Amino acid sequence: MTASTSIKDFLPTLDYKRIYNFSELRKIGILVMLGIVLIAMVSIAVMMGNYYISITDSIYTIITHLTFGDISTIPSLHNIVIWDLRIPRIILSFLIGGSLAIAGTVYQSVFRNPLVEPYILGASSGAAFGAALSIVYPIIGVSIQLSAFCFGALAVTFAYLLARVQGETPIFTLILAGVIIGSIFTAFVSLLKYLSDDSALREIVFWLMGGFYYATWDDIILLAPVSIAGFLILLAMGWKLNILSMGDEEARSLGVNPERYKFIAIAVATALTAFSVSLVGIIAWVGLMMPHASRILLGPDNRYVIPASFMMGGMYVIVSDTLARILTSSEIPVGIITSVLGAPYLCYLLRSKGRGMFG
């Protein structure tokens, strides 16, 4: 070894730019594959049900509507089953699942805790109280959906204000405040159950189990703008969420105001959660499980995890709702299906990928 050489000359030269580009292309490829799987799942879900309709008839019905064709050429029963019943359910299932999944992704990044889910700040408990209040006392004149959304958002607001100390919102304090507020609203729901008659009690129980029994195009018109806007905002914040997941001090050192971006992220995730719960009730496990599955495929980078979580959450709820429709003659609440499928899968993830689930 001469004076003009160094130890670096004997080490293998790595093309880091090429490695980085390959990693990015791999992640994009995974997202494309998820999109293809999503299309396949939607195609299967459209056909499945107590009344079977072939894929060709299903596609013809959908294309006729989308191209403003002659609807009279579609058999009336096919038109009702496909366009009025199944398509709204599938679209709503996808939007609900995607919204809850990315809300869970955001909460886990902001709180730096892989066990956090979208209901941790009391959104589900508040929404449940709002729905139960409207069911037991319909004289108030407020729809179940509006009441559930308002109280869901109110619960998270209470938790955030309770946790805020001297202009800062410590993560542990915020989680604890969410648990407290959620417990209070859960107690109120129990009180309303006690005060309700048999008919109202039955309706409350079914609402709490979650389901897409009454999905309509009006629900999609309400949810789609919120879901898409929330997705785009959080996707644009992907890099900021990566920084927030490193901790407040690290975020400040990189020029990011953690309080500002935590507030924006939590507000958007709360809106997605409250809107979703207000329309279909409480759907369990989606917001906890899908972010983990996405990180296993794509790593911790939220710029890729957010779109993957949105697609995987949507697919998971579509599959769960399809099973809820076809397993028995009487429809099973979809919240039961997501719990039955979700718990064993999360156990598998913990056993096989436990140490790497959060990056």
The CATH C-level name is Mainly Alpha
Measured by DSSP, the beta-strand proportion falls in under 5%
The biggest beta sheet reads: none
Point out poorly predicted stretches: 5-12
How would you explain this protein's 3D organization?
By secondary structure, the chain is an all-alpha fold. The chain has a single domain (26-356), classed as ABC transporter involved in vitamin B12 uptake, BtuC (Orthogonal Bundle), CATH 1.10.3470.10. 74% of the residues lie in helices and 0% in strands. The protein contains 14 helices and no strands. α1 packs antiparallel against α3 (76-111), α3 (76-111) crosses α12 and α12 (286-298) packs parallel to α14 (334-353). The longest helix is centred in the N-terminal third of the chain and has 36 residues, at 76-111. It is globular and about 65 Å long. Residues 5-12 have low confidence and may be disordered.
